[in-house]
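Ticket #4471: structure output looks truncated?

Reporter: J.K.
Steps to reproduce: submitted the chain below (192 residues) through the standard prediction queue, then opened the result file.
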Amino acid sequence: MLDAAYDLVAAEGWGMLRMTSIARSAGISRQTLYNEFGSKEAIGGALVQRELERFLVGIQRELEAHRGELERAARAGVGYTLQQAVDNPLIKSVLVAARGGADTDLLAYLTTRTDPVFGTAMALLDAYAVEAWPDVDEESRGLAVETIVRLTVSHIVQPVATPEESARRIARVTARVAYPGAPTPARPSSAG
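Returned output as attached by the reporter:
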């Protein structure tokens, strides 16, 4: 049922999604669909949660590849997330529709009804950070986790650079928040 809903939203947008279309595409009765989900909004929440879980598995893999290297881990996790957001048909459909002023119901999960996304992402990252960044104090770790989640979601909703450049910037900010007294490495001068 969720696969059918996903395909329909990716192809036609959230605003065009109808319970009848989902049921027909999934090969079930409309009543079965209503019995399982109850409403279109519940399907939207389930789609968002399923995509979030897929993202988190990939993020966890990226973080583990750079365990103990805060900035590299942050860059890898954020880079993965931002690239997946660009490539994900559901997210692309939601963002394109929202930029046109329509279909903002699913976008609300990233902007106003953020508990499922933010809460889940921050819990995962905090659990990782406790183990992977033992030298970061609790307050700085909490601020770094919140910073990386909020900035990443912001860059998904309103990208200002390539996923790679945004990931580099967000990772740098996260490292500075986690280690507020650490010296900043000098950047090479572009002037001759």
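Triage note (M.O.): checked the attachment and the full token line is present. Confidence is low (pLDDT under 50) at residues 186-192.
Status: closed, working as intended.
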